[in-house]
Amino acid sequence: xxxxxxxxxxxxxxxxxxxxxxxxxxxxxxxxxxxxxxxxxxxxxxxxxxxxxxxxxxxxxxxxxxxxxxxxxxxxxxxxxxxxxxxxxxxxxxxxxxxxxxxxxxxxxxxxxxxxxxxxxxxxxxxxxxxxxxxxxxxxxxxxxxxxxxxxxxxxxxxxxxxxxxxxxxxxxxxxxxxxxxxxxxxxxxxxxxxxxxxxxxxxxxxxxxxxxxxxxxxxxxxxxxxxxxxxxxxxxxxxxxxxxxxxxxxx
Length: 252
Known about the structure:
Distance between the termini: 34 Å
Largest sheet: 6 strands, antiparallel
Order of helices and strands: HHHEEEEHEEHEHEEE
């Protein structure tokens, strides 16, 4: 990376530096490559480390860089698309679902989720934990809340535990006739458990995608999926939530 002294520019100095760094990432660095340390970068560009840090933080928010524990700052792969549509879609766990079940246990849903499910205060539901991996890295973690009324004829639970228990609940949920679903997306910060699952630091920016599944005239299940904001971008269509390996790539 060559030395570039920054002169007076109309935009903030860190913003101009971000542009210079972005161009260097395109021409001089490969995906996954570790950047030089902050002291060396600041010296090469003739800026204060505080200015450099602002530029690096902006590039991380834009998905160009990733800060990895015990590794440093690396060049990020292209952002993957989170397509948000309003089509009827399919139940979680059905053919083509890229999520992997990790666990299932009874639990009381958050107040906002309980309101959507119309469950009583302190009423327990099935809480399924699932993860999503693309190109070998975790990109999303999900909590799927399924009330007992949605799987009233549940079978095979005595011997099931963990991921096996999750698959049994998903199988019985799919017996309902899916009438539709809707999604809401918002920017949030990673909680400690989400950050651990996604190999991020607590407080890192994430995309929260809440999906309601409708059957028999009511909300039959609610999914709260946490996507890494540094690796995902939003796209809009009728194909549900998909992960793409790059701007022109296919779904994972």
